[in-house]
């Protein structure tokens, strides 16, 4: 029998509703579960390290924030990761093609097909999806748990529109190797995976195992220009716009005149100056 460390965010949008179903489903698939609480996200990586010699895999039920809190422990232990998407946006699950249906997600873990994926890194903090500064940080600060629980992914759109009307551009310097650009931007985002922010795409050909980071700088002058850009940003084709500058690489530096907060997978974790880099083939996940 396979033994799994089972970490579920009971406070996730769907956590309480499906916890018992998930346990029953996984046990029926011959997976023995050693359950631990995720009430303190800061301890997730530590808990994973404590179980490294006692389990065959780690199963995490929650949203992108819960998964992000576990990256360091997963990278250190090399334990494979099974995902039960119980959050609001579930962008990592979407990138990996894992359906939100609980029974299907459990079956994917039991089937055992694995893929090795990259992770991003900024100032000692890992990320699966995107690390960004500017507009997204303001959205994160305004997006309440109550709104996410009540409205789900639509809460992102409503909060984004509110923030967008108030947003102002800032000056930043982006460096990659010998290339350097000073930009006036509303947002700089560095993507490792494909999806972020409830289904926005970093780039139309982005993948979480392509061993590259995709950076874009959103250089709109008026809030209404963002509304014109939204269809392209859903598809990842924003590089075609004159208001967007894009870069691809494995190592970036971003400097601002004063420290600016950086959002990693929906959590504010660090500040500029920022060093972004790729950690290729960093961990293994169960996929369809």
UniProtKB/TrEMBL annotation:
Q: Which SMART domains match?
A: DAGKc
| One GO biological process term | phospholipid biosynthetic process
What one GO molecular function would you report for this record?
Answer: metal ion binding
Please provide the record's keywords in A-Z order: ATP-binding, Kinase, Lipid biosynthesis, Lipid metabolism, Magnesium, Metal-binding, Nucleotide-binding, Phospholipid biosynthesis, Phospholipid metabolism, Transferase
**Which parts of the sequence belong to the DAGKc domain?**
1-125
Top-level division of the source organism's lineage? Bacteria
Q: Please give the Pfam families that the UniProt record associates with this protein.
A: DAGK_cat, YegS_C
Q: What is this protein called?
A: Lipid kinase
Its source organism is Myxacorys almedinensis A
């Amino acid at each position: 029998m396979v033994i799994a460390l089972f970490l579920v965010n009971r406070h996730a949008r769907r956590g309480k509703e499906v916890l018992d179903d998930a346990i029953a489903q996984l046990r029926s698939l011959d997976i023995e579960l050693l359950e631990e609480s995720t009430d303190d996200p800061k301890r997730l990586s530590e808990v994973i390290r404590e179980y490294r010699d006692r389990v065959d895999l780690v199963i995490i039920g929650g949203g992108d924030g819960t998964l992000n809190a576990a990256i360091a422990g997963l990278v250190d232990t090399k334990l494979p990761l099974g995902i039960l998407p119980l959050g609001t946006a579930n962008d990592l699950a979407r990138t990996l093609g894992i359906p939100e249906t609980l029974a299907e997600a459990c079956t994917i873990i039991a089937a055992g097909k694995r893929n090795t994926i990259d992770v991003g890194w900024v100032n000692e903090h890992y990320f699966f999806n995107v690390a960004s500064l500017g507009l997204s940080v303001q959205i994160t600060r305004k997006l309440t748990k109550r709104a996410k629980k009540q409205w789900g992914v639509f809460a992102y759109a409503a909060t984004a529109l509110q923030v967008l009307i108030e947003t102002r551009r800032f000056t930043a310097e982006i460096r990659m190797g010998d290339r350097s650009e000073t930009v006036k931007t509303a947002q700089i985002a560095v993507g490792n995976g494909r999806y972020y922010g409830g289904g926005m795409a970093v780039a139309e050909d982005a993948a979480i195992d392509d061993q590259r980071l995709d950076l874009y700088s959103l250089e709109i002058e008026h809030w209404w220009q963002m509304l014109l850009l939204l269809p392209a940003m859903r598809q990842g084709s924003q590089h075609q716009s004159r208001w967007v500058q894009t870069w691809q690489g494995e190592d970036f530096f971003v400097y601002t005149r004063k420290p600016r907060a950086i959002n990693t997978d929906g959590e504010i974790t660090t500040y500029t100056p920022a060093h972004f880099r790729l950690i290729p083939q960093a961990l293994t996940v169960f996929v369809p």
